[in-house]
Design goal:
It contains 12 helices and 12 strands. α5 links the parallel β6 and β7. α4 crosses α12. The longest helix has 20 residues.
Length: 341
């Protein structure tokens, strides 16, 4: 079976006959879950198994956005609430090591939740560095307001996930923190000088360039490419993401259905892959859109296939020993019970 360079969503709590046939035919590299796909733990496990069965790969990537705060697909009553990134960065101003420890612990708890469902990729951490006046789409999802603070806690989150058998995805490369628009709705254009981008926006991604996967930003960086957002820009991919940042892991596009991108879905997929994305991501589960995306998507091969295999090879064969009750007690104590279940 030839694997498509794509990650796709599905419509509901179970797969329809049409979805099963479609996924079996096009063989996406992976899948992504959203709140519409979530009910109970048993139901999620069944859906994850259904998805993997369509491509006959027991280790096929199944992704989710489980950051905490505003972006949390799993929640009460079956899963606990988690804090947004900023809450970790605001812990104990005089003890950066405590902030790092609790960020790692929070990610380890997330991994525990996800691994129990068969989900093996979390689209965390957000490495964007917000600036004054930027759109709040990043806002409290960011760990800190300095590149060093973001990188410190971003790495801690990656370590916690990997220790629990879940792969992280650093996002939104090469940086969404200056955007003055929400790329779900509009195309943000950043006019900052290259030197400012390099020392602030790109810096956390440089410091975590050894991570297995990254997700692009649908943002135009005028200092690099005035016409195209990072997702579809060969210049940004070559000169910044693979060049200045030095990232050699798997790069996935952000969601192709976001309004920051224009044109037909086949053209969006084709342009993203031509720019240098290894795989394209389509999230909303709309069958008509997915068929168009696949029409513009090629087989996963060459360097992209190498990166995909290398990324999945980072999954921990043996998870770090973990006492759930002790971990929850430490976590809740650090936040003084503000995020207790």
């Amino acid at each position: 079976m030839v694997t498509s360079a794509s990650i796709l969503g599905c419509g509901g709590l179970t797969l329809s006959a049409e979805e099963k046939a479609f996924f079996s035919d096009v063989a996406p590299w992976g899948f992504i879950l959203f709140a519409r796909n979530i009910d109970t733990p048993d139901q999620v496990r069944r859906l994850v198994d259904e998805l993997r069965a369509t491509v006959d790969r027991a280790d096929a990537p199944v992704l989710i956005d489980q950051e905490g705060g505003r972006v949390q697909r799993l929640g009460p009553p079956h899963w606990r609430r988690y804090p947004p990134g900023r809450a970790y960065g605001e812990l104990s101003a005089n003890d950066p090591l405590l902030r790092r420890e609790i960020t790692r612990l929070g990610a380890r708890l997330l991994a525990h939740d996800l691994a129990a469902l068969g989900i093996n990729v979390d689209c965390v951490p957000v490495l964007d560095v917000p600036v004054e006046g930027a759109h709040e789409i990043i806002g409290d999802r960011a760990y800190a307001r300095t590149p060093e603070g973001v990188a410190l806690l971003g790495r801690a989150a990656c370590e916690g996930l990997i220790a629990g058998g879940v792969l992280p995805v650093i996002k939104h490369i090469p940086g969404h923190g200056r955007a003055t628009a929400d790329s779900h709705l509009d195309l943000p254009v950043v006019d900052a000088a290259y030197e400012d981008l390099d020392t602030r926006d790109f810096a956390p991604f440089k410091m975590l360039s050894d991570m297995p996967m990254a997700m692009t930003a649908h943002v135009v960086y005028a200092a690099v490419d005035r016409r195209k957002p990072a997702t579809t820009s060969k210049k940004v991919m070559r000169d910044v993401i693979r060049g200045a940042i030095g990232f050699d892991g798997l790069v996935m596009s952000d969601d192709l259905s976001m309004k920051a991108l224009g044109g037909a879905f086949a053209d969006r997929a084709r342009a993203s892959l031509a720019a240098g994305c290894d795989v394209v991501l389509h999230c909303n589960g709309d069958m008509g859109e997915m068929k168009q995306v696949i029409a513009g998507t090629k087989a996963l091969s060459g360097q992209a296939l190498r990166r995909a295999k290398a990324a999945m090879g980072r999954l921990a064969k043996v998870r770090e020993p973990f006492d759930l009750n002790e971990a929850l007690a430490r976590f809740d104590a650090a936040f003084e019970g503000r995020w207790a279940a």
